[in-house]
User: Fold Branched-chain amino acid transport system ATP-binding protein from Kribbella shirazensis.
Amino acid sequence: MTATEMRQSEGVQEPTPVLSFEDVVLTFAGVTALNGVSFTVDPGELFAVIGPNGAGKTSIFNVLSGVYRPQRGTVRFGDQDLIGRRPHAIARLGIARTFQNIELFSNLTVIDNLMLGRHHHHPYGVLAAFAWLGKARRNELANRNAVEEIVDFLELAQWRRLPVGLLPYGVQKRVELGRALASEPKLLLLDEPVAGMNLEETEDMARFILDIRDELGLPIVMVEHDMGLVMDLADRIMVMDFGRPIRTGTPNEVATDPEVVRAYLGEEHQVERS
Ligand SMILES: Nc1ncnc2c1ncn2[C@@H]1O[C@H](COP(=O)(O)OP(=O)(O)OP(=O)(O)O)[C@@H](O)[C@H]1O
Assistant:
C-alpha cells in the first residue's frame, strides 16, 4: 500500500492540489514527447520529475509555463486552467521558473537582476508613475525591501553590488533562484537546479531548496538528473520514460520499484539512496 493509499484508508482528508496535470499528450511532427501524463502537486510539496534523456521532463515544464500547447489533457493551477495561456500570463498567475542554462543579465548587478524579477509588482506604467510619483516611489521602496530580504535569505550579501557575470557559477544559479523568488510565486519550477555544480555548490543549493519549501512553504516542481539530490529532497518523485510516467511515489517507493530499476539499468544514474 502506498503512503497515499494508507492515508486514504485511514480516512485522512487529501489536500486540494496546487497543480494538476491530467492525461497530457504533446506531440511534435511524429515525436510523442508526452504520452498521457498525469500528476498532482500538493501545497508545500517538493515534487521531482526524473527520467532518462528525452523522457519528456523539459516538455512538462514547457507545457506548464505556456511555451508548448499540448494536443490533449488539462493543466490546472488552483482554479485556473493553464492550457492556451501565454508564458507571461502564466508567470502573472504566480508560476516562476528557473532554467537549465543561466538566463540572467550578466552585466547587471545581483540587486538589479533581482529587481527585474519584481517587474510584475510594478502596478504603474511609466505615465502613471509620473502622475503618481509618490506612490511609485513607495512602490520602488517596497520592491527594494523585498529584494533585500531575498539577498539575506539566499546569503547573497557579499556579491550584491557585483555584476552577475563575474560571480562563480553556483552563485549565479542562486541569483537565478532569487530572481524567481522575487516575483513572489505561488509555485516554483526548478529545471536542473544543480546541473554543473560542484559538491559544495550542490549542498548549498539543496539547503536553499529545502528552506524555500520549509520556511516559505512554497510548492516546488523540480526536474533534476542528480539522483542523490532527488532522493534526499523530494517528497514525491515521478519517474518518466518515453513520455509516460512509469511510477509516482515517495523516494523509497520509487527506488524499490522493479520497473523503475529496469528503466534505469544501464543508465549512468542508478536509483539509490545516497
Ligand atoms: N521543440 C521540439 N521539437 C521536436 N521534438 C521535441 C521538441 N521538444 C522536445 N522534443 C522531443 O520530445 C521528446 C522529449 O524531450 P524532452 O526535452 O522533454 O526530454 P527530457 O526528459 O527533458 O530530456 P533531457 O533530460 O535530455 O533534457 C524528445 O524525443 C525530444 O526530442
